[in-house]
Amino acid sequence: MFWWLSTAAERLQRKARAKRAEFEAKWAQPLPPVAPELDAAKETKIALELSIEDLVALMQDGTFSSHDVVSVLAKRAREFGGPAGVNALTDVLFEEAFAEARRKDRDRQRGGGESDAVGVLEGIPLSVKDHIDVKGTDSTTGAACRCFRPASKDALVVELLRDAGAIVLCKTNVPQCLMLPETSNNIWGVTSSPWNLTRSAGGSSGGEAALVAVRGSLVGIGTDIGGSCRGPAHFSGCVGFKPTPARVSGKGIVMPSKTGKMGMQAIKATAGPLANRVEDVALVCQAWWVNKMWARDPYVVPLPFDHMAYRRGVTKDAQQWERGGGESRLGMGERGGKKKRAYQGGGRSDWAGL
Q: Where would I find the Amidase domain in this sequence (predicted)?
């Protein structure tokens, strides 16, 4: 019996090492050179200053290209999101992302830079949590036994984001079997807070939150059942949102069970976005809450994005912020700001550009 357990453990360790070696081989491949006209000021504007809506508009009018945006985000993901930084990544799709960006740029040029069907995320690179299926990549849930089992198709939430124009840049780290408030496993190791590498990034969407906070991704797709988007967002100082579970499809989201299916029915997990701006999170919800979501998944409530309710909520929050009423419902507030500053002591706050 003990011999069998020892053999099984060694087999899983070999699998984990092989998966890590595969990642390191991808990681060693150089990125395409950044365009000469993309100077430091423009890189800063893309990564730190512009909202997704602004970036989409600037790509449509030719100020930036999709290739420019992918270049900047891939560069930051490599510099700050990798093993020498917060260690947030489990797979990189840089080659595919650059190819998709070039295709979008060609299509835009052929169309004269204008289109009646520009997606709300057109040309925007994003990251996806490890256990959400992206075609051709593993959804390991942080467990070695799930390595080398690539998904045959995208999860529905990823498919809808691609329909809205998004480009998948990478996948991000999770705790083993997901159900922990930190991010660590035997394949990829520990993901750290961008504010202090000796502190945790939280979990289970810790990889997403850390990468978004260092601006290695403009928006990340995590999952949440009891705080797995919201907690890491608080740890890293970004925005995390858990939609009502019946609003978002779980198709293609792998769970740590024998079948990979969702087993928790009383309190359900759901995919949720993370970003550095509330309005960027809202754009993901707009991309999701369309007819295709509930047409493809009958368990999803057919309820479109309510623009008026969203605007009322943002207006109310802004008024609360101006009155100085403590913590904002949609932002961090004064107390959150103090906590964020307290974390900077042992880390490199410049990673997040804050």
A: 85-302
